[in-house]
Amino acid sequence: MADTWAVVLAGGEGSRLRKLTTSPEGLVIPKQYCSLEHSSCLLQDAISRASSVALSSHVCTVVAAQHRQWWTSAAAGLNPSNVFVQPRNKGTGFGILLALLTLEMRNPEATLVLLPADHYFREEEPITRVLRVAANIASEATSSTFLLGAEPDHFDAELGYILPTERVSGKPAFITGFKEKPSPEHAQELIGLGALWNLFILVGSVLGLLELFAEDHSHVVARMREAVRRHAAGHRDALDEFYESIGPIDFSADILEVQANRLQVIRVPHCGWTDLGTPERVEATIRSMTAQGAGRRQARATPLFLDLRTHFRDLSTVAPV
Question: I need a labelling partner for 43 at 20 to 30 A (CA). Which of 60, 62, 68, 313 fits?
Answer without folding.
Answer: 313
